[in-house]
Design goal:
The protein is of the alpha/beta class. It is built from 15 helices and 16 strands. Among the domains are: 59 residues, no CATH class; 133 residues, D-Maltodextrin-Binding Protein, domain 2 (3-Layer(aba) Sandwich), CATH 3.40.190; 80 residues, 2-Layer Sandwich (Alpha-Beta Plaits), CATH 3.30.70.120. 34% of the residues lie in helices and 27% in strands. The strands form three sheets. Strands 1-9-8-10-7-11 form a six-stranded mixed β-sheet. The chain is globular, with a radius of gyration of 27 Å. The chain binds adenosine-5'-triphosphate (ATP), 1-O-pyrophosphono-5-O-phosphono-alpha-D-ribofuranose and magnesium ion. The site of 1-O-pyrophosphono-5-O-phosphono-alpha-D-ribofuranose has 11 residues, from strand 10 and helix 10.
Length: 406
């Protein structure tokens, strides 16, 4: 297997972090001469960054010097792209208001978290800076965490499903020509066309996950090229046979006559809250901050999928009403229904004829729940959105503590 990467693209990435990972994956077969030449250049660059301050190119901090001696906790948020606005909206929904003086200023504050600074960065730089110690927490897509984190144990995924930025990383091939009848990764791998001299050419921006996936799937004759965007054009341009890129609606693939194949999904992705293990264990206040952010996120995200439903029911007492409600599968709520007496005044006398039942219902099951309520005598059904559900504690918090050995 060889990995062909244009020199100019490679040099924009971190030479010191990109190539050692390939050599770890493929200790010997980096046969491609051009790759060896690029590697030598990268090594020279890395060396020159030590010897000459003027020509140094570094991928964030190379040591933890900048991480020492600051008291503020740093949260990295996407500076642009499709995740940027959704991230700010989610934080706003959690009552965390990011105060950015103007859109070109890359530092901001969250008044509700006075010990925390927000730094706006490109998603891949958020991951790099978490690893270098220049950021402590970040919100990015899981695809970027996997690609740029490369399994580094210092990265901890605190919340893996923030409910936006959903997409998957997938291998796609043309739906015409020699690929017309190919439907799976297995069939693609078995095509007689791919040889050592003429490998399957894959265009991807995921130059770590791509080769790793192919190796894990036993695909030997494959070569990779990279580009910064519009990868779907590569097969029609004759540059590649297949692409490995993010897919969400599938429109871009369809519009470029490409198709996904069975077994070709590398990973499912959505936005995640990520932290540096080192920061959580060593930086004062970081753990408290992540606890607060996590609690706010969980409370909001849990409530986001639910409605509060209130209905009146006739009954002799609360227990009898509860028993009737409990016969219906969708009416248990989060912890069983809350039932309270409704005090009515009739002929100058206060009496209880109705009971109010309050339950939380998943949004998807709303209509079904209303029908079940009516079936057991519910009337005057009121439905309102739920804003927060604060549980006693969050399972993710316990997981985090045990992950940190605390
Ligand atoms: N089509 C998509 N639908 C949903 N989420 C996506 C899609 N493409 C990417 N994402 C998610 O959004 C993140 C940011 O993608 P986006 O394309 O906005 O930024 P970028 O790739 O950093 O910028 P650029 O494409 O300009 O290089 C991705 O890492 C991924 O997690
Ligand atoms: O399945 P779809 O909904 O069509 O989305 C998939 C496309 O979205 C992303 O591209 P983006 O819009 O970021 O453009 P880019 O190629 O310039 O990065 C991704 O790289 C795909 O090309
Ligand atoms: Mg993009």
């Amino acid at each position: 297997m060889s990995i062909a990467i244009p020199l100019n693209t490679t040099l924009q990435h971190s030479p010191s972090c990109l190539f050692p990972s390939y050599s770890l994956l493929y200790p010997t077969p980096l046969a491609d001469v051009s790759v060896r030449r690029i590697r030598r250049r990268c090594l020279r660059m890395a060396t020159s960054s030590v010897s000459s301050a003027q020509s140094s190119v570094q991928n964030g901090a190379t040591d933890a010097v900048s991480a020492v001696g600051r008291n503020q906790i740093r949260l990295g948020l996407p500076s642009k792209g499709r995740m940027a606005t959704d991230t700010l909206d989610l934080l706003k929904d959690c009552q965390l208001f990011v105060k950015q003086v103007n859109p070109r200023q890359y530092v901001a504050q969250i008044p509700q978290l006075p010990n925390t600074e927000v730094w706006f960065q490109r998603p891949k730089d958020i991951v790099r800076k978490l690893l270098s110690g220049d950021l402590d927490l970040g919100i990015v897509g899981l695809d970027i965490v996997s690609e740029f984190g490369q399994g580094n144990e210092d990265l901890i995924i605190v919340h893996e499903s923030l409910n936006f930025g959903d997409c998957h990383l997938s291998l796609a091939i043309p739906n015409y020509g020699i690929f017309e009848n190919i439907k799976s990764l297995k069939e693609l791998a078995q095509m007689p066309q791919w040889t050592e001299e003429r490998p399957l050419r894959v265009a991807t921006g995921f130059t770590y996950l791509g080769p790793k996936f192919m190796k894990e799937n036993g695909i030997k004759h494959v070569t990779f090229s990279t580009a910064d965007g519009a990868l779907e054009a590569a097969p029609a341009m004759g540059i590649a046979d297949a692409i490995l890129d993010l897919v969400s609606s599938g429109t871009t693939l369809k519009e470029n006559n490409l198709k996904e194949i069975e077994g070709g999904v590398v990973l499912e992705s959505q936005a995640a809250l990520v932290a540096s293990r080192r920061a959580l264990t060593e930086r004062k206040g970081a753990l408290d901050t992540v606890h607060e952010i996590l609690e706010r996120l969980e409370a909001h995200l849990k409530a986001d999928g639910q409605f509060t439903v209130v209905a009146n029911m006739r009954g002799t007492d609360a227990e009898e009403v509860a028993a009737r409600v409990k016969t219906q599968p969708s009416l248990s709520g989060l912890q069983g229904p809350t039932i309270s007496p409704v005090y009515c005044k009739r002929d100058g006398k206060v009496s209880i004829e109705f009971y109010a039942i309050v339950i939380c219902v998943p949004k998807k099951a709303l209509y079904e729940s209303v029908q079940q309520l009516r079936a057991v005598g519910g009337s005057g059904v009121l439905v309102s959105p739920l804003t927060y559900i604060f549980d006693e504690d969050t399972p993710r918090w316990s997981q985090l503590l045990s992950n940190l050995g605390l």
